[in-house]
Amino acid sequence: MDLSLTGKRAIVTGGTRGIGRAIVEQLAREGTSVALCARTASAVSEAVASLKAHGVSAFGSALDVRDGQAFAAWFEGAVRDLGGLDIAISNVSTRPEQQGEAAWREAFETDFLQHVRMSNLALPHLQQGRDPAMLFVSSIASVLTTLPPGEDGYGTMKAALISLTGQLAAKYGSKGVRVNAVSPGPILFQGGVWDQIRSAHPSLFDRAAALSALGRHGRPEEVADAVVFLVSPRASYITGANLRIDGAAVKSVNF
Ligand SMILES: NC(=O)c1ccc[n+]([C@@H]2O[C@H](COP(=O)([O-])OP(=O)(O)OC[C@H]3O[C@@H](n4cnc5c(N)ncnc54)[C@H](OP(=O)(O)O)[C@@H]3O)[C@@H](O)[C@H]2O)c1
Fold first, then answer.
1. What percent of the chain has pLDDT above 70?
2. Topology given in CATH for the domain delimited by 9-188+220-240
3. Atom of ligand 1 nearest to the CA of 36
4. Residue range 160-216, pLDDT digits in tens
5. What single string gives the DSSP state of each residue in 12-69?
6. pLDDT above 90 for 255
7. Where are the alpha helices (DSSP H) in the chain?
8. CA of 93 to the centre of ligand 1 (A)
9. Across the chain, what does the average pLDDT equal?
């Protein structure tokens, strides 16, 4: 199936590894120009070079998305570099480094407010775009009642993000912009959170694999393929959706 993504222009936060990296690689393979950001400059340069090898324009900057001013300046510059915006994918999450109320504030800042900021920046440009789409990367943590220690704020904010997705879809549908979310289950890649859990807590790692009806963790490419479809013109009647990509790890019927 031709996804009709050739010549499209996308901004993706956190595109240097894991799910974000798989998304930008897949978009570039489909002929979409990409601007990405992450904190580690060397990883940004490496990712941009890899994307350019697909023959598309690629831009990247090292910054912390929690710095609202720096993020806004980068975002507007990225839209200029790309010559407009058709696709915005808000992917970054940061593990809380603090405890107690400070950890909740941190989760609110990174796993919710940052996505609101990105939508506020993206939506005016998307309305001028071609078959425009916005997508948020949530998590099955949004619906789990039992989460690992320190992840209560993460799960709560990921749930709020799905609510935001539905609200924005309703508000911007008449302006031609589709807004969707995906909720991955445990996704394994080198250096990622589940790679670390495999070393530090092997029994938790095995339990997560066994939870899936497929008996294994997912791969970033398996999330990226669904994301790239959802932001493509081929998903033209899908908006306000939250797609679980978890190998049926969540034990409820997915109404
Ligand atoms: N992995 C999973 O099992 C899983 C499951 C469900 C949902 N998710 C969601 O999927 C998304 C991606 O997670 P992931 O596990 O694939 O990758 P990740 O290891 O969380 O890294 C994501 C990317 O974001 C960048 N990043 C992190 N914090 C940043 C910040 N404050 N400012 C700018 N860039 C930042 C990272 O680069 P730098 O570190 O260099 O900044 C990297 O490029 C997240 O929203 C996560 O909640 C993941």
1. 100
2. Rossmann fold (3.40.50)
3. 43
4. 999 999 999 999 999 999 999 999 999 999 999 999 999 999 999 999 999 999 999
5. EES-SSHHHHHHHHHHHHTT-EEEEEES-HHHHHHHHHHHHTTTS-EEEEE--TT-HH
6. no
7. 18-29, 41-52, 68-82, 100-108, 114-126, 152-172, 193-200, 202-211, 220-230
8. 5
9. 97
Our mutation pick for probing the ligand 1 site, out of 34, 50, 63, 91, counting the most ligand atoms within 8 A of Cβ, is 91
Report the distance separating Cα 99 and Cα 248, nearest Å.
31
Ligand 1 lined by 243 (C-beta under 6 Å)? no
Active site residues: 138-139, 154, 158
User: Tens digit of pLDDT for each residue in 88-136?
Assistant: 999 999 878 888 999 999 999 999 999 999 999 999 999 999 999 999 9
Instruction: Name the closest-CA residue to atom 19, ligand 1.
Output: 192
Burial class (CB in 10 A: 0-12, 13-18, 19+), 81: middle
